[in-house]
Amino acid sequence: METSVAETFRNGIVLITGGTGFLGKLLTEKLLRSCPVKKVVVLVRSKKGLDASQRVANIYKQTLFDRIRHEKSNFI
Fold this sequence. Notes:
Elements: H1 5-8, E1 13-17, H2 22-34, E2 39-43, H3 52-60, H4 66-71
Parallel strand pairs: 1-2
């Protein structure tokens, strides 16, 4: 029996490490947009004078996340 990726993650909690890298950002965006996940947890560390929350805020302002910001009112 085949199960779709979206169904695999339905109501799940997903932990992403490396979420600030190229592939991590793409994976995070795709999960948030396409899968009915309950929660996505992204592990982020401080770097280059920015704390983790500042880094996340900067990442989620990127154009990659424009579609999610437009479609989901509860996105950061």
